[in-house]
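Z., the sequence and structure:
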Amino acid sequence: MKKLLFLCCALLLLAACAQKEDNTKGKETKGDNKMNEQLVGKWEGNIVIQNGALPIIPIIVELQKDSGKLSVPAQGLSNYPFKSIKYNGDQVSVSINLNGSAIEINGTLKDGQIEATFQQNGGKLPLVLKPFKEQPEQPVTYETIKIPVKDGELTVALQKASKEPSPVALIIAGSGPTDKDGNSAIAGKNNSLKMIAEGLAKDGIATVRYDKRGVGDNQSLLTKEENMTIDQYVDDAVQVINTLLADNTYSSVHIIGHSEGSLIGLLAAQKANVESFVSIAGTGRPIDEVLLEQLKVQFTPALLKETTDVLASLKKGELVKNVSSPELQSLFRSSVQPYMISWLKYNPANELAKVKSRVLIIQGTTDIQVVATDAEALKKGKPDAKLVYMDGMNHVLKNAPADRAKNLATYSDPSLPLHKELLPAIQQFILNEK
């Protein structure tokens, strides 16, 4: 589950990343120091946070002769100017003042890449910057349709099946800036949901998927963060389902929810007459329990105590005006608190009990974000649900070892196929095959 937790934890550290520079030629910079002109240009890399919930934070830096800019796509930060930049031969030093936080990046050009350290508030982390590469355009294999929703139209990707009429499944992505393909500026590009859609289409099952409000094709549907709630996401999903139910092209309608999309999907399944619901890596406990479990290995006792108190207030529906610790500002910023209040009111296991359709729960054994405890809780909430464990499958639905670093490496490798048992399990369940 790439829950808001992972987005917000990343944002705390995103503010601490980066250095950038622009394409310019020449070998001189401020002062008498010479500079290696190969440093000038656009670079990309990852801040790696040891023991973090999702410790990979992609950044882009643009190094110019006398200045530079930083971009952190996951935070919506684009072309943020450096405070200063200094060159000395193969070395570069950057300082950034980001919302009052002092950041320093010091690097050395070596073998075509910049080996650097990133420092903020006394903490120092390694950073390797490589020449920026534009991602090639992916071939479009789906049709685009528009569905009326609150405040406008939702742009939806329809992956047609090999034959009609066919079953159709709505695929709902996880939290944060995760798009319809399962990719995120935080976690990387893995194409997990794209692979599910294309794989099911070959197996005779159509799918629809979409970027959530505020993301990609539907970015314009979210103008203020404080206006967003889980319930709005659910309403969008219900509108899509009702549109599919009214279309004779489809023999039956189903929902597939991944991570936070599992909660959104099961809530939508309560409101619409779907044939089945598939939960993949969905949490089975209230989100405050999950957040505290993940943060206890990262936070000091004082920070954990404040986090517990803030979550307790939000769970009662009370906004928290004063969050004293700077480390918690991004996680509990005022504009995100309404969303968290809407999220905290739900216990996924209790809500799943209200779903009348057939239910399949899928859990990977090497998922380092959602664990077997959650799958068991969902199963307990709906005893007649089918629970399937996929040996060696991680959170992005790829075969991965338990080793954290190697597991996380799969998050940004779209060349890796889905776990071999995933598509057959979904197909057989949707088609109600034994």
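The radius of gyration is 23 Å. The first helix runs from residue 4 to 14.

Let me know what you think.
H.
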